[in-house]
Structure formats: structure tokens, C-alpha cells
Amino acid sequence: MSSVESSAQSRWLRGIRRTVTGLHPVSESLLAAVVGLLVGAVLMYIYGFDPWRAYVGLIKGAFGGSYELASTISRATPLVLTALTFSICLRAGMFNIGAEGQMYMGGIASVLVAYFVLPRGLHQIVGLLFAAFAGAAWSLVPAFLKLTRGVHEVISTIMFNWIARWLALYLAIFVVVDPRRPEKTLSIPISARFPVLVRGTDLSYAVFVSVAFALAMYFLLWHTAIGYEVRAAGLNPSAARYGGIRSKRTMLLSFVLGGVAAGLAGASIVMGLPPTYAIYGGGGLPQLMNLGFDGMAVAMVGRNHPIGILVAAVFFGGLNAGGRVMQFYGANPVPLEMVRVVMGAIVLTMSVPELIRLFPMIRRRGEDLFGILRRARRTERRESA
Amino acid sequence: MSDQSAPSRNGFFLRAERITKVYSDGTVALKEASLELRPNEIVGLLGENGAGKTTLTKILSGLLPPTKGRVVSPKGAVRFGSPREALDFGIGMVHQHFALVGTFTAVENVALSHERPFRRIRIEETRRKLERLIEESGLRVPLGVPVEKLAVGEQQRVEILKVLSRDVDLLILDEPTSVLTPLEVDELFAFLRRLRDQGKSIILITHKLKEVGSITDRVVVLRRGEMVGDVKTSEASVEQLARLMVGQEIEKEADAVELKTDEIPRAASRREIDRSGDGVLHVENLVVKGNTGETAVDGVTFDVYAGEIFGVAGVEGNGQTELVESLAGLRVPVSGAATINGENILGLDPRQIYRLGVAHIPEDRWELGLVLPFTLAENAILGVHRWEEFRGPLGLMRWGRIGQHVRRLMERFDIQATGPNAPAKSLSGGNQQKLIVGRELAKDPAVIIAAQPTRGLDVGAAHYIRQTLVEMRDRGRAILLVSADLDEVLAHADRVAIMYAGRFVEVCPPDDLDRQRIGMLMGGAAGRETE
Asked: Inter-chain contact B350–A14, Cβ cutoff 8 Å?
């Protein structure tokens, strides 16, 4: 099957492959974002919308002014934290898909501050601690299952997401419910709220929690011995063991930190999202829904690096914030769901380098198949002759 | 280079014409290299690490496309998109790093290599074919055991059998002898000669001049990607080849001797060692189980004293790996005792053992010794990252100091790299190993456990690492040297243990052994009747 001289086409394919696989991580993320937007544009065009106007609306809605920018950053706030959940665990060699559930538990736990009175400042810290503790506790269960019984963390964290979801819904509707307004939980008392940062927007001081945590994680992973151990164990567990690193400990630590991040994400919504500062049970926790999963997309685009995640979260927050505007824009407005299409296309594009690596294999398989068919036909002909 | 000498267009099997290979990072691995392969011939491809030997063969076997130049068969130019296309053409390569499915048996692995979509896999037929091949080739392997449970040497034999079972016309072997016993090498060579006489064409990649002399018909020497020699083995002198390979006049006499005879100069300790009482490393009746639950180390007792190198020779897979791993804290032994300066080390984790003054140069530098995506600096502190020198208050890493430390290591151990922040995977094998050796010796250890410290390294790097070990020995360290390279052990050890089937079948100074007896001991033939 040795092809005599290479065809121009295969050289072309090889060229594309080299370009895409050799891309720098940052340009890869940028490329994915552009491709995602292009895919969205093509779909809009097919369905009779004007992509240009829609994107102008989206960009204006996301970054067009201080109000828009504040909404964007406000939407990025929880995404940074849930993305960190995924990334910290991935750096330690674990797939923590449980940010969603851990975030629910953190959100519910932070509502508990409504039951007691504390001075301003301390009250907020206690709320964050509650949320962090609840998120960490929720993520430790899969971690222990993995350590003691070998349960794969992907399975257990996904199942724990569902347990958390219904548990949180139950608690929101029946336990920490606001007796006067049964569709929502108790509101966070004023002394525990994160004040609004930009007047008239829903951007609160919670964003500083998120940024501070991301910077802390960067510092921890790249500038401390513990972080060094976490990364070593994630990249090569046997070399880490040889280096005297106890990978069980790094694994537990990564799950604790991940759980803390997710818990704080929940708290940032409950304690830092005006106007109600509460979780709505009605409609199935709409404020929290999917933030954990979106965080994974953010982590991917942010290349699992805390600083990259900050940038990627602003991009995704912008898509969410701008998408709302896009659907009011012009005579033929584009539905909000198109934003999710763009996000999906971005995530798909991010995995394309892997896909392109498969290309030559698929081609070879095809050629093999043709070869067999040709040979079979030849023998048939010979036999009939 | 030998185009003109080709008798006719049909006189060759394959010809590489002016091949240039530039890797995507800009490294020029080959410059206008030409090579003609004829039937009935064994060609030795000689060169130091990084000379381009592997690149050239990878191009011939379809793993890499050439940047410039072409590969020609008597029927015209050929280009292989994949190793499978090359195999179909009749070119098979046995790599240094094996491509085997660990959970499959030898038979299943070979059957898999024959697999085609929508065809049945014929296990029984493959088994019969393999049994016949083993009979013919003398490459013995257990057929019914998952290959991950086989020793490295056995895995290599499976790999060779896999390629042979495809009835190839050109067989490329990348340093095949490094994991074989002298007897197995003889068997392999005899088999290769038979293959040659059947009209096959064989390429043997090596940097051992001894092998070149004993089996090849023609030698092609590569240096830094350029073809610097293409001579008949019978017409070449060893000195000439050595000079071609290294590319310069050999500086030191010792190096010259080493290159010429391929014998490593004896480096015995000058001092008398006090061997009374327990050694720095004391091991008693150690029993360790292997991965399959079999008894890999079966009651081994020995002492390593300060100022000596205690060598463990033997065919791989006779318990050396398990012995080293249990002493380094990577494997929990079944029974026995082991102490360092009187303190128990069995059952401790690696960190606790290092604290007692142990350095471990591991057998597998990619899997154990290095975190490949990490930088040089990050790798240089693996295992010592919690030392105060590198870790400040609050557990903060002192990257500045670590960088200085790495620069010192790079200078002292002659590690070629762009800097402390270069990723470890960008280094050549020799430099990676020097990095590991440097890191381990920087611990200022009392005991050094070195497992296969020079495997796969070029002459220069291997020489350097051996020299370093000898130096440490002369400074009063206790060194346990485990190596499948018999010459290395014999030349450097003050006492040698021959390991077979988990036991030491002989422990004595190397001068008391002759090669024939060693060969028999390593093969288990001599048993323990001497005791």
C-alpha cells in the first residue's frame, strides 16, 4: 500500500495538522473563540438572522459601557471559581466534574447566615466559611470513595451533582425557605451581603473573592512546595511517588480546594447577587443552574491556568451578558440560545487538535478497507474467469 | 554515497537519497544522508546519541516523512505514510521503546499486529507460527503471560518476534542487545546471520563497536546528522570507526582505550575496605514479590560497605528491579530486613528513606526519574523540594535559589540545555540521565542505589556517569550498582553478585570470574554448586 510519491493533498493535510497541533496554548484558545463565533454566525445566517448586527449587539451588550462591563464581570465571578474547581483537580490528575453539586451545597450553606446576627465583615467571612466548608465536604465524599474503594471520581462526582441538586432544591423549598415568599429562600441579612460595587448594576464586591482566590491558587500551585507536589503528582504519579510525594494527600488537597472554590461560587451568587440576595427554589434554582458545567468550559479555554481562567471567564461572562442584549437588538432579534451554540462550538473547537491527530488514522482505515474490497473483487473475477 | 558502486538498478532493496530532516523545532537531525540497502547484508548504523541514527531509520520505516530527499526502491520512489505501509512493503523496525499492549499476551500482541479491519484475528495460527519462529530464532518468551508482566528483555524479544512474523525483507533493530545476556546476544546474532543468508537486509543501530565488528558486513557512521563513513567492516579498523563516530582526536588515553576495545577500563578501589560487621547498607533474607505475585527476590542477603561499589549483574527480570524498588521504598517486601547505618528502611516511604541518606538513580528515567513536562529546575528538586535550601517560610519555593542550584548542576554535570526553564522532555537521553544523577548526588548521600544508570546513553555520557560513580565511591560512599551491562559491572564493582531467579548465585570480586562462568551463572546453568 505504499503510495508512489505523496499526493499534494496529503501534504496539505499534514501541513494543517502541524499548524494546529503546534499552536501555542493561548493562540489555540483564541482560535477556538473565533471559530466558535464563526460557527454561530453561520447558523444565524442559515436561520435568517443578521450575524453582523447580532454580534454588534452582543459586543455592545457585553463591553459597550460601564453598566455592560459590570454585568459581564458579575457573570464571570462564579465562573472563575467553578472553573478553578475543575482545573485544580485536573492539575492533580483528577477529573472533578462535581463543581455543580459542590456549588449548590455552598450556596445553601451560605443562606444559613440569615439565622444569626454578627457584625458586618465578620458575618460575611462566616458566610464564606460556611459555603467553603459545605463545598469541600461535598467533594470529599467522592475523594474518599476513590481512595478507599477505588470508585472513579468522574462517576461519583456526576452522581453527587444530582444528589446535591435535589437536596438543595428540597432545602430551598422546605427548610431555609422565606416564610413570607415561599418561592425563595431567606435573604441574606444586610450585614452579610457583599455591597454593590458599581451602582445600578449587579456587580458586587464578591468579584474580589473570586479574583483573590484565583491569584491564591496560582500562587499555591506555582510557588509553594504543596503546589509543586500537586502538579508533580498530576503529571506523573510514579515519579511523584519516587520523589517522596504522597499522592493520596495531594489528591485529597486538590478535592478540598476544588470544593472550596465551588462552595465560594455558590456563596458569590447568594451573598453577592442583588437585588434579593437569596436562592430561588421556584424554577429549579435558576440562578445557580449550569454554572458548574460552564466553569468546565471556562477552565478549558483558560487552559487550566488561574490567570487564563480569569480572562476566559470574562469572555464567557461577556457572552452571557451580551447575549441578553442580542435578543432585544434590531428588528429580527437573535434568541439567547444562540449564545449557548457559540459556547458549544468553542468547546468543540478546543478539542479539535486531538481530532485532527486522528485524521491520518481514519484515512488509513479507509484505504485498508478499499484495499480489501479491491483484492476481494480481483479474486472473485479470477475465480469466475 | 554508494550510489556509484551499486552493480545494477536491481542490486539493491531500498535506497535513501539525499535525505534531510528538519524537525518542527528547527533541529536538523539529518543532512543529505544517503544509504543503500542490499539483500544478504547486515549494515551497522553507528553513531553517538543524537547523531540521527534513529531519525534515518524512522524515515525508512515510515514513521517520519523526510523534509527533503526520497526513498527509492527498484520499482521507483516510495513514500510510506505509516509503519503499517512500510511493513506491507517488507520493512520492519524494532524500537528501543516497545509498542506492546501490556494486558495482552505475546500471542495476542503479534496477532494484533496482523490485524486488519473486518478480518478475524487468528490466535491459534499465530501461536503456531510464533512457536516455530521461537524454535528457529532462539528468542524464547512465555507466550501465555500478559507482556506487562514480562521483563524488559523478554518484551524486546516479543517485539522482535512481532516484526519477524511479518516476513519482512528489511529488519531494523534499534540497539537490540542492551537488554540481553551474552548468550542471548550470541543466539540473536546467529539468527540474524541466518536471516541474512536467506537474502534479508538488516540494519543494526548501535554504539557498541564490538557488535559492529562481530556481526556487520558494512558500517555506516553518522555524526550530527551527517554521514561521515560508509565502509566494509572487514576493511575498517576500530580506531578509524571510533574517530569517525566521535569526530575528533580522542583526548584522553583512557577514553581511547574504551573506544578502541569497547572494554571499560577497570576502576577498582585502591583502598582496602574494612568488611567487618554490617555494611552501611545491610540486607538480610529479603523476600519481595513481583507484579504477578510471584516471588521475585527470594531471600537475598548482602552488605554494601562504605567506599565500595557492589555490583549486581544478571539478565533483566531476575529480581533486580524488585530488589531496588524495595530498598528505595517503592515496593513493600514480604519479609527480611534492611538497614542503613543500623536503621530499618523496610516499609518506609521514599521520603523517609532519602532522609537516611539514600540516593536512587532509577531504572526507568521517564516513568520514575523525571516529570517530563516539568522544567529542568522543577525536576532538579524532585524529592528534595522540601529542603530548607529550596523551601522558604510558609512553604514558598525559592525559585531563585533553585535556578542557581540548577545552573551549578548544569555546569558540574555538563548538562546541555537552554536553561533552567527548559522542559525536561526537550533534553536528550544522556542529558536527562545526567540531570537525574546530578540531582541524586547533590543530596550528598551515604548510599547510592544506581539501577541501569547508563542504559541507552552514548559513550561520552555513559563514561561520564561511570566516572562520577567511581568518584563517589572513592569519597567513601556505599554504592549499589545494578546493571544489565555486564562489562560495566565487571569493570567498576569491587564485588559482584550474579542474580538469577531472585537469588544471588555467586558473590565475589570480579577478577575471580571468567566470562564463560559468568554466562553460565547468568543463565542459571551453574546453579549453586560452588557453595
From this structure: no
Tens of each residue's pLDDT in chain B, 531 residues: 334 333 444 578 888 888 888 876 566 788 888 888 889 999 998 876 667 888 888 888 877 888 888 888 888 888 887 777 888 888 888 887 777 888 888 888 888 887 777 777 788 888 898 898 888 777 778 888 888 888 767 788 888 888 888 888 899 998 887 667 677 788 788 888 988 988 889 999 876 777 788 889 998 988 878 888 888 888 877 777 767 776 654 444 344 444 444 455 666 555 677 777 888 999 999 999 988 778 889 999 999 999 999 999 887 778 899 999 999 999 999 999 999 999 999 888 898 999 899 999 998 888 899 998 899 999 999 988 888 888 888 888 999 999 999 999 998 888 888 888 888 888 877 788 899 999 998 888 999 999 989 876 777 778 888 889 999 998 889 999 998 777 788 888 999 999 988 899 889 888 888 777 777 787 666 544 443
**Fold designation for B281-522:** Rossmann fold (3.40.50)
Got the DSSP string for B174-230?
ESGGGGS-HHHHHHHHHHHHHHHHTT-EEEEEES-HHHHHHH-SEEEEEETTEEEEE
User: How far does B522 lie from chain A, in Å, by closest CA?
Assistant: 29
CA distance B179 to chain A (A): 23
Put simply, the answer to whether B397 touches A22 (Cβ < 8 Å) is: no
For A295, counting Cβ atoms within 10 Å of its Cβ (0-12 exposed, 13-18 middle, 19+ buried), the class is buried
Question: Beta partners for B170?
Answer: B91, B201
Q: CB B81 to CB A360 under 8 A?
A: yes
Interface confidence, given as ipTM, is 0.79
The verdict on B328 touching A (C-beta cutoff 8 Å) is yes
Contact by Cβ (8 Å): A60, A322: yes
| A6 contacts on B by Cβ (under 8 Å) | 65, 79, 81
DSSP code at position A196: B
Q: Is the peptide bond before A286 cis (omega within 30 degrees of 0)?
A: no
Nearest CA in chain A to B327: A242
The CATH architecture annotation of domain B1-90+169-263 reads 3-Layer(aba) Sandwich (3.40)
Interface contact flag, B84 A364, Cβ < 8 Å: yes
Q: Is residue B383 less than 8 Å (CB to CB) from chain A?
A: yes
Residues of chain B contacting A91 with CB distance shorter than 8 Å: none
- In angstroms, how far is the first alpha carbon of chain A from the final one? 26
Gap from B435 CA to chain A (nearest CA, Å): 14
